[in-house]
Design goal:
Elements lengths: L6 E6 L2 E5 L6 E4 L4 E7 L3 E6 L2 E5 L3 H13 L7 E6 L4 H6 L7 E6 L2 H10 L13 E5 L2 H8 L9 E7 L14 H8 L2 E12 L5 H14 L2 E9 L4 E9 L10 H11 L11 H6 L5 H7 L6
Parallel strand pairs: 7-8, 7-10, 8-9, 10-11
Antiparallel strand pairs: 1-2, 3-4, 4-5, 5-6, 11-13, 12-13
Length: 299
């Protein structure tokens, strides 16, 4: 059987990941974007939005586990969460493993993404969209957030706000990484709540990381970076949690985090990337990464 030609998924302006799918991609055009999905032996099932790779079934556990569990396990007992983007359901799937979670609101721009994932990549959400604790609202995330201000405060205070979005420089979500939007998010946080934002690749996206990190620090007194390794996005990938002043974690939080995992998560043994040791190690950043976070980088 003749395979389809290799496709290129951009990592930066002059570099791309080459993928050789073993079957023709499925393609549809929504009101917002082109949605494509396919399969390759190394990635498993994957999907792309306007050419950019979003997730694949063989490595999505990396971003979804860390995006969800790093902030959730630093919170005493997260009950309510808002996921900006999140149309593949992977982050919601991971948050639902926390027994304390009572409600997750997914603010996804494009209903066609959810429908496409449900049909062609059901292993990513793994039933998350059908869980009664999950609510989907479609439309621009900034408008969804603004609409929450008209609802009772008890229904709109979030312990966690996860940014499960396209790249920061994507026109569809660039406005969701500004100081003004971070202030809008801060207004929706519960007293001990925090955001968890994807900053990008410290190797390829230095200027946008610096700009987003600066905006976060203008709004939140406590910002904590974390570095993970994500094959689909080209390797090192930087995250940041941000919130009100929080107690600094113990110098050796492994026992504490291990207890939280055992007591608070369903099937913690099934985690494939996140662990207490990874949680601790992700806070240690090499100098070339820290230079993007100056002058706000923690020492």
């Amino acid at each position: 059987m003749k395979h389809p030609p290799a496709l290129l998924a951009p990592l930066s302006a002059d570099l791309a990941l080459s993928i050789c799918p073993d079957q023709p991609e499925r393609c549809e055009r929504s009101a917002y974007q082109e949605i494509r999905s396919g399969h390759s032996p190394s990635l498993g099932d994957y999907y792309r939005l306007d050419g950019d790779l979003m997730a694949s079934t063989l490595d999505a556990f990396v971003i979804h586990e860390t995006l969800a569990h790093i902030p959730a396990l630093e919170h005493p007992s997260p009950r309510r969460a808002l996921i900006l983007g999140g149309g593949d359901g992977g982050s919601a799937r991971e948050l639902l493993r926390h027994r304390s979670i009572e409600h997750i609101l997914i603010a996804e721009l494009d209903p066609a993404v959810v429908a496409h994932v449900r049909q062609h990549l059901p292993h990513l959400p793994d039933g998350a969209f059908d869980d009664p604790r999950v609510e989907l609202r479609y439309g621009d995330a900034a408008r969804t957030l603004a609409a929450l201000t008209s609802e009772p405060p008890t229904a709109t205070a979030f312990d966690l706000i996860l940014f499960d979005l396209c790249a920061v420089d994507n026109p569809a979500c660039a406005h969701l990484h500004t100081e003004d939007f971070f202030r809008a998010c801060a207004a929706q946080l519960a007293p001990q709540g925090c955001l968890h934002v994807q900053l990008g690749s410290p190797f390829f996206h230095g200027p946008q990381i610096a700009a987003t990190w600066r905006a976060l620090n203008q709004v939140f007194p406590d910002c904590r970076p974390a570095l993970i390794s994500l094959p689909l996005y080209g390797g090192p990938w930087l995250l940041a949690s941000a919130g009100p002043a929080r107690p600094q974690p113990d110098l050796n939080p492994l026992n504490q985090l291990g207890q939280r995992l055992a007591q608070g998560l369903d099937a913690p043994h099934a985690l494939r990337y996140y662990s207490p040791a990874v949680h601790q190690a992700a806070r240690a950043l090499p100098p070339y990464v820290l230079q993007h976070l100056t002058p706000y980088a923690p020492l």
